[in-house]
Amino acid sequence: MPSEVELARQIEHLIPEQVREVYTRDRPIEFRPVNPVNPFAPEPRAPVNHVWIRAVDEVPGGPLMQQAILAYASDWGLLGASLLPHARTFFQPGMQAASLDHAMWFHRPFEAHEWLLYTMESPSAFGARGFTRGTLHTRDGRLVASAVQEGLIRLVDPERDRPG
Length: 164
What we know:
alpha+beta
């Protein structure tokens, strides 16, 4: 499975110049989507996304540092699951999104540099809000963490919505 960065490099000519470097540079956390979405030509699909994630290097500092790395990584892609049935992505013009809240629970110890399957689903996307939840499992199927997020997601028309 190619990584998210490898996929972005394949279409980097389509990524807006002001953010191209952010999406195509190497990162300390690797994301490998199971069923990638073309951010410039999405098709409607079920509001479920699966991504393998891991820290690229071993993480020193004990369980608290493992949890901090995973909490940081858990924000990636979670809200995007609510866009899947609507065939929308954050790359589309006029798409505005903001996290309203994000919570996480850690159920058992894990190593952030070992592969974890992040399953993200959105049971509700309505009225400019998307609600998503995610679970993180080890390769042998142990649930190690859960996350939830609600976000503002809407299309804006810059001409119509400009102040004044």
